[in-house]
Structures are given as C-alpha cells and as structure tokens.
Write a structure and sequence with these properties.
Elements: H1 2-19, E1 21-23, H2 25-33, E2 38-44, H3 50-60, E3 64-68, H4 70-77, E4 85-89, H5 97-107, E5 112-116, H6 122-134, E6 139-143, H7 152-157, E7 167-170, H8 173-182, E8 186-196, E9 206-210, H9 219-224, E10 227-230, H10 242-257
Length: about 260
Amino acid sequence: MIEKNRDNAKMAETDQWESQLIVGRNPVIEALKADKLIDVIYVNSAATGSITLICKMAKEKNILVKRVNEVKLNNMAKGASHQGVIAVGACAEYVEPQRLLEIASERGEDPFIIICDEIEDPHNLGAIIRTAEAAGAHGLIIPKRRSATLNHTVFKSSAGAASWLPVARVANLAATVDMLKKNGVWIFGTDGSGESYDRVKIDGPVGLVIGSEGFGMSRLMKEKCDFLLSLPMAGKITSLNASVAAGIFMYEIVRQRNK
C-alpha cells in the first residue's frame, strides 16, 4: 500500500510538472504575448531564427533564459517536438465559469461557450481550443475528472490559442451547466439522435456541448441539453473526430450570428 501511494504521488508530481511546460516556438511566443506566468525559458544554445525573438521578448519581461543543449530539451519534452525551446511556468491557469459570462458581457456579446464532456485526448482538446478561439468563443469548460488538462501537448496542439482562450475546470459539469442555464444560456448538445445542425436556429446565448471521443455525451449531460444537434453522414463512416465535428458546429454558430 505504501509503495502504491508513493507511485501515485510520483505520477501526480510528474503530471503537475508536465502541466507547467509550454513546448515549441509558436506556443511559447503566444504565451509571452499573452503575459502568461513564466518562470524560466530553456533554449537550445545552437538554435536561431525565432529563438532570437523569444529571447528578446523574455528579456523585456525580465524572464530568465537558460541556454542548454539538445539532450536537456529532449529529456524535458519526453518525445514532444520542442523546436529548441521550452518554457516552464504556470501553464494551467484556469478561471471560474462565471468569468466566461463576464467576458461576454464586457464585449457586449451573447455568451458563446464551449463545454467539453470528457474529451480525454489532449490533441483533440488543443484542436478544439484553437477553433474556439478563432471562432470568437468566450471560453471553454472542462471537467476535473476524465478530461485532458492544459498541459504542454494541449498548448502545442492549440498552436498557442490556449494562451488566449479562458478555460474553466470544474468539479461538477452538470451543476455548471445548470448555472449557465440560470443565466439565460441555451445548451446545445451534439448527438447523432439530434436534428441536423443546419435546420436549427442557434443564436442568442449559446453553450455548445462536445461529447467524448468514444462515447459522445454522457446520459446526464444529454438530459441537460435544451437542443440536440447532429451532422448529416452520407458515407459509410458514422462519426467524425471530436475536434473536427466541434469545428463544424462552432462555425455554424458563427455563420448564423453573422447573418
């Protein structure tokens, strides 16, 4: 039992460390632009190009830059493509879900919030964050359990968008959806049993639920939705990658809002 507890503690420590890494040139540049909390930036002493810009930006913000060799960066990245730079700091900065409503109000816009129901693949989560930021969403909500977190893979997959899009991490996703509904947000779920997305009016305050990669939305989350949306599938494949489907739904919302 003691050994098991030690192993769990070691895994938790490793996860915490990895969540503090921002890996790759573009993610680090975007994190610097967004004034993310960064303690130190490790750069390959032989690297050139945009590494020079990163060092210049770090100096302007009084962030320590350490020049190291490729082996050191490879060990830190654990297989991720670091492109000669890794930043270490408070990568996982979450906001309260109420803050997403405040951001929409500050912009004078109806809330547009993405709700990820157990998206476990960090590449998918990063891609969803990238599209959500580009589509003008006010933020994204993830559960604390059975979900990818804001680690370096998510930052890399989001192409830096994770530095700009506010993310709330909540203990009870269903209760958070109830809070959104009480604040006038209509909840649209994505499910094969729903009505075709192009036949549904999706405007006003919107919360868009994206289900997990393998199982879709949970039963409870499905019951919480005001409307269910589906994608027409004309081929032999009956589903799309979660991040691809999310992008289609998000830009349908954009299209309808811009009419």
